[in-house]
Design brief:
By secondary structure, the chain is mainly α. It contains six helices and no strands.
Length: 122
Amino acid sequence: MTDTISGQPAEAGVWETLRAGVAAVLALHASREQTLERFRLLHNTRSLRAGWLEKRLQFQDDLLPLVETRMGAAVGSAEPRARAVIATAFACLDAASMTWVGNDGKGEILDLYDECLAAVRD
């Protein structure tokens, strides 16, 4: 995810950059069925869910300097906007994946992600 975000053009906005990172992570799965099964396990197994939340916090910390720079903030400035943007992107991924699993994998998870993001950005 950090490699994908780092590789985005300088003129790309922070939201589209984060979306590219989400898409890159989703593309790591071998198949749609594998993606669905992994999200099912993640959302239905408490220990896996707890592990994911811990890992997600680490991802957010890793992404922070990249997003701060993209937003024009000084790296390490303790500015909350970059943290809020990153947390929102991950919350939208959670909402999209929970909806997708609940619908038994119907539709496209990135379309659901886009819908979730549009809802919070409006």
